[in-house]
Amino acid sequence: MKTRTELSVWTRLLGLICVIGLVTQVTLAQANITVQVDKPGAPVPKTLFGLFFEDINFGADGGLYPERIKNRSFEFPNPMMGWTKVDRSEPKAQLHVFDQGSIKDTANSHYVRIKAPAGNKGSGLTNEGFRGIGVEKGAEYTFSIMVRRVDGPAGHLRVEINEGDRLLGEARVSNFTKDWKTYTATLRASDTSSKAGLTVLLEGEGTVDIDMVSLYPKDTYQNRPNGLRKDLVTLLKDMKPGFLRFPGGCIVEGRYLDQRYQWKTTIGDLDERRLIINRWNTEFNWRLTPDYYQSFGLGYYEYFLLSEDIGAEPLPILNCGMACQFNSSELAPLEDLDHYIQDAIDLIEFANAPANTEWGRKRAQMGHPRPFNLKMIGIGNEQWGPQYVERYEVFAKVLKQKYPNVQLVSSAGPSPDGERFDFLWEKLRALNADLIDEHYYMAPKWFRENAGRYDNYPRTGPKVFAGEYAAQSVGIASPDNKNNWECALSEAAFITGLERNADVVAMTSYAPLFGHVDAWQWTPNMIWFDNLRSYGTPNYYVQRLFSVNRGTRLLPVLLDGSNKNGQGEVYATASLDEPAREVIVKVVNTAATAKPITIDIAGPKRVGKTGNTFVLASSDLKAENSLDNPTRVAPVERQITVSGNQFPFTLTPQSLTVIRLALR
Ligand code: AHR
User: Fold this and answer.
1) Best mutation site among 411, 415, 441, 520 for ligand 1, i.e. most ligand atoms within 8 A of its Cβ?
2) Which of 326, 366, 425, 507 is at a distance of 20 to 30 A from 37, taking alpha carbons?
């Protein structure tokens, strides 16, 4: 029998346990995440998380397209832009630019003539590259050049990679003929430099014409000639993107219609791709980039190949007869849209038709007899107004009849709400549009507050393509915007809402994708690079965590019993990875404090004893990654032990956490 004292100790102990229980219960009740595994929802589209590529910020030439020579064919309006004359002897040689444009219409009408006198020790020109030329110690580069001998012995050209007086590689090409021919040589870099130049010199007497000067890394993605920059493609592939939208963005539209992106001029032999100005060249007075042109070395064929390489559905966006409405707003008359529509038809044929058809043959000749299986195209970029609807309608009528299985992406304009937005949604819904592209470049707070944006969207009719979004730390188009943790964390909170509504939101992509640290016009961007290095921003890691942990079927999530997202600064979404038989829970804690929560995997299925977590966090909302510190904010993987279907978990302050649990 227990004594009085013993009893009172037990009573007090019991009381204490009850109090602790109560406290725990209160804490749990405040942050309890219930994942309803027994109520699986809609399938998660494979395209939910994808990529938006635009040739902005030197994203193509000088970026993903690793040609080291800027203005390689002397076709910039100033044919010598990027080039400087070099003469190593007296008397000096003559160097002139010739234009055969008046003789025949060609995409590549300019070339350079070097006429050197007897005793010439080296005359020619140096290319500055894209804010320098990047070479890596021990790596090999293919130099190529078109040459024709005009007169004299004109024995050979000497080629050098140099940084100031430092010679980093050299080669020779010789035996020139009277006809244009391409000559190649391999240069191995003796040291690393991101700011080198390439010099081409005629040594000895004679006259030669030169054109299409190229220095190309051998080490490209898949080691392809004319292939893409390996580190950048790897960053993209690591995201397991569901789609790749290309080539933009406003670049599709052009400032004027004659500067619009025309896909047909971007395929075939490199020297037949017609260069145009990049519309970002002059867009922002505070970030003018007079040397920004599009060589189209990265053209439509390469975009399709890239999509295939990274396992993404290609999504080309076509001009619909409208130039950028922030610039000229030039319109192609409605009755003259045939040419634009024919471009769309021919593009679908180029991508999908058998190799024995007109356009399929062109694809096959470029090296891809198999169709690319294009499933969707965009009609116009960020257009608005009745002018857009009228034009979309004409496109849709023809394309839907001819290719009923090709999905059409249409535009909701540049803002996430307002008159233009409402007008477009109403009209496009009435037209039975497939996918409507919404853009939001908003403050971080907007992203946190709009995690429920799609909760009440109609469940029938057009699907949403959140085609361009990024939190702006200062304001849209401000050069002071940063890719900081506050922006990325706010986007993570918002993305939980995109995923929870994946029955309505079919596709999403952050924009823009790339920025060259020395040559950008727009910030923030998901991936930054210089001539040799690159890094993913915190925003990149948010996207990547969501994308690689996408799951195949939605699971309803309750926060403290409610299906309202973002309560108590906690945002959550969950899905089932059916092939892997795993539950995936993604939780965002925007609070500056740790949050103890209980996770309840509700339903008859038992969870395994261990799980994997990926935590992306920083106590500093201003934290950014950089070339020198590329993973300051990067996910940390950890194994956890779970006590059962209901288990306690502590959310790190200011974090995105992904939890993967096996289902037995
Ligand atoms: O992503 C940068 C630009 O923002 C895109 O080109 C355009 O579509 C939007 O206005």
Assistant:
1) 441
2) 507
